[in-house]
């Protein structure tokens, strides 16, 4: 989870401490559709996985991201 | 008193150009003309449709003007050949400039400037030039005969387009550039250096996003459906 939190902090430009909350797209200023895809690519590169379109669309909160990644690894 | 006009062509381009002539020109469309092999009906847009071989007899050059209104087939060679055919027969060519387009420019025969075109001062457009709405032609630009400028294209100042060149939707050509004759400049192409005759430039189509529109809607704050 530490690895995911670093990706969230770097990609969404938020303090690392905030990655421990369950924030959603509406809670983070820099989390728009473009940065969402940057986040997805960063996750795929870091974990060596390829996420499906439906999963990408559902990964709109930190908890959803963690749950989805856990399915792949 | 309106001037009698015959239009060569009986397709979508002819229909679009006819709209402008009928809307607010000094011309009255009398008939449409096509090559003999293409006379499939007796009329087009409720006007007589006649064979090219009959045009001199039925609508002589001393009484009728003509406008060649066909597409850019052969990168404008078809339009050029028909223009030259009617010119050899002695016809005068109609010209249309949208009343909403003002400016200090010159324009040859069988040329049309449609609505929402911006022509900057001292632009010079030749014969048989088609300029669709949204085009911008910069100051002192020279558009040679038989060119076709599609909607939204931008031609920089002091740039020259050679004869018969086609410029696609939204293409941008910088200033002080020379484009050769019969070039094919595709939609959204960007040109910043001169190019020789018969150059073809095509911009790649934008790649599809990984997500389909249903998936994209879920993660886009702009497109997401908010619960009421």
UniProtKB/TrEMBL annotation, chain A:
Gene3D superfamilies: ACP-like. This is Carrier domain-containing protein. SUPFAM superfamilies: ACP-like (SSF47336). InterPro entries: ACP-like_sf, PP-bd_ACP. It holds the Pfam family PP-binding. Residues 1-73 form the Carrier domain.
UniProtKB/TrEMBL annotation, chain B:
Belongs to the transferase hexapeptide repeat family. Substrate binds at residue 71. This is PglD N-terminal domain-containing protein. InterPro entries: AcTrfase_PglD-like (IPR020019), Trans_hexapeptide_repeat (IPR050179), Trimer_LpxA-like_sf (IPR011004). It comes from the Bacteria. It comes from Confluentibacter flavum.
């Amino acid at each position: 989870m530490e690895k995911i939190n670093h990706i969230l902090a770097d990609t969404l430009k938020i303090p690392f401490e905030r990655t421990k909350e369950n924030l959603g797209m509406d809670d983070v200023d820099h989390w728009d559709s473009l940065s969402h895809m940057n986040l997805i690519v960063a996750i795929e590169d870091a974990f060596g996985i390829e996420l499906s379109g439906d999963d990408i669309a559902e990964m709109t909160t930190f908890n959803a991201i963690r749950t989805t990644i856990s399915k792949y690894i | 008193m309106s001037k009698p006009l015959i239009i060569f062509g009986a397709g979508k381009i002819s229909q679009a150009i006819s709209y402008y002539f009928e809307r607010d020109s000094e011309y009255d469309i009398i008939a449409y003309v096509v090559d003999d092999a293409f006379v499939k009906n007796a009329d087009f847009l409720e006007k007589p449709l006649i064979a090219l071989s009959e045009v001199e007899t039925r609508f002589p050059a001393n009484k009728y003007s003509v406008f060649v209104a066909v597409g850019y087939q052969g990168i404008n060679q078809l339009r050029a050949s028909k223009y030259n055919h009617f010119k050899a027969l002695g016809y005068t060519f109609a010209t249309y400039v949208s009343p909403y387009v003002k400016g200090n420019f010159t324009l040859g025969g069988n040329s049309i400037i449609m609505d929402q075109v911006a022509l900057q001062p001292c632009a010079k457009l030749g014969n048989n030039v088609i300029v669709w709405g949204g085009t911008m032609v910069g100051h002192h630009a020279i558009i040679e005969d038989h060119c076709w400028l599609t909607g939204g294209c931008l031609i920089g100042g002091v740039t020259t387009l050679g004869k018969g060149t086609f410029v696609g939707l939204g293409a941008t050509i910088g200033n002080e550039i020379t484009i050769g004759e019969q070039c094919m400049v595709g939609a959204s192409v960007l040109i910043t250096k001169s190019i020789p005759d018969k150059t073809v430039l095509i911009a790649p189509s934008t790649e599809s996003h990984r997500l389909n529109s249903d998936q994209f809607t879920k993660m886009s704050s702009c497109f997401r459906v908010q619960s009421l």
